[in-house]
Amino acid sequence: MRTLKLTLAYDGAAYAGWQVQPGRNTVQGALEAALAKVTGAPVRVVASGRTDAGVHALGQVAGFTTDSPLGPAVLLRALNAELPRDVAVLEAVEVHEGFHPIHDAVRKRYRYLIHDGPVRDVFRRGYCWQHPGRLDAGAMHRAAQALVGKHDFSSFESSGAERLSSVRTVYAISVGRGRGAEGHLVTTEVEADGILYNMVRAIVGTLVEVGRGARPESWPAEVLQAADRRAGGPTAPPQGLFLVRVEYAEGRGGMKDEG
């Protein structure tokens, strides 16, 4: 059996999330159906994380094992011919046996987009939170720095996906406003060693309370210390969230050595 790693992009608008669910359209279901058709056998795929309904990916990573003789380049072309138009395989590589997209991941980066212009952007409605009022992106960025580091992020975790620990390390958070034609777009980027259920959306919802002037810049630090989801802001809507990339430990996600 061979182990392959796929990097995927998808528009999550039409899907009930990544994970297979009976009677529902999911990204995993679409990918596994395409793989079965291409390889001629059922294939079970594991992703680096389960994106929720409406959430998008620019660099989701998935892995699977197969006894198909198809090379990675052929597999990539064949899968893209079979997949729906809102899902694409960006890269396919053969990796070492035992590769696990979840356990071997060391960093994940997410991006969240907010449009706060006076008139809604009809073309971005499926890819951002259209906030009714201009936000102070600078205040949001300053407030977010209290969340950098190793902390218990219970205040930013929704119930529904129990974990052994809510402690995660956030390496960086940035909030910035675009320029020129992008001046009404506020972008939040979060990079961490792991992401709890709805963690990024809860962080964004909390920072928006600061950005709209309802809370002081010191408030997110207080929310963090509370270790209680009820202490924080609302969960931002899913359509503004993108999984940007997943990084792996050296030797655990790269191409298999040849020869």
Question: Short description, anyone?
Answer:
The chain is 20% helix and 29% strand.
What's the SSE blueprint?
Blueprint: E1 2-10, H1 27-39, E2 46-47, E3 56-66, H2 72-82, E4 87-95, E5 105-115, E6 129-130, H3 137-144, E7 149-152, E8 167-177, E9 185-192, H4 199-211, H5 219-226, E10 241-248
Parallel strand pairs: 3-10, 5-6
Antiparallel strand pairs: 1-3, 1-4, 2-3, 5-9, 5-10, 7-8, 8-9
Helix pairs in contact: 1-2, 3-4
What does it look like?
By secondary structure, this protein is of the alpha+beta class. The protein has helices at residues 27-39, 72-82, 137-144, 199-211, 219-226; strands spanning 2-10, 46-47, 56-66, 87-95, 105-115, 129-130, 149-152, 167-177, 185-192, 241-248. Strands 1, 2, 3, 4, 5, 6, 7, 8, 9 and 10 form a 10-stranded mixed beta sheet that branches.
User: CATH architecture of the largest domain, please?
Assistant: 2-Layer Sandwich
> Regions with pLDDT < 50 over 5+ consecutive residues?
none
User: What name is given to the CATH topology of the largest domain?
Assistant: Alpha-Beta Plaits
What Rg is obtained from the alpha carbons, in whole angstroms? 19 Å
Question: What is the overall shape?
Answer: globular
Largest sheet: 10 strands, mixed
SSE order in H/E notation?
A: EHEEHEEEHEEEHHE
Count of beta strands: 10
Question: How much helicity do the residues have?
Answer: 10-25%
* Structural class by secondary-structure content: alpha+beta
Strand content: 25-35%
User: How far is the first residue's CA from the last residue's CA?
Assistant: 17 Å
Mind telling me the CATH superfamily name of the largest domain? Pseudouridine synthase I, catalytic domain, C-terminal subdomain
Could you name the CATH class of the largest domain? Alpha Beta
Number of helices: 5
Overall structural domain count? 2
Mean pLDDT value: 94
What is the subunit organization of this protein?
A: single chain
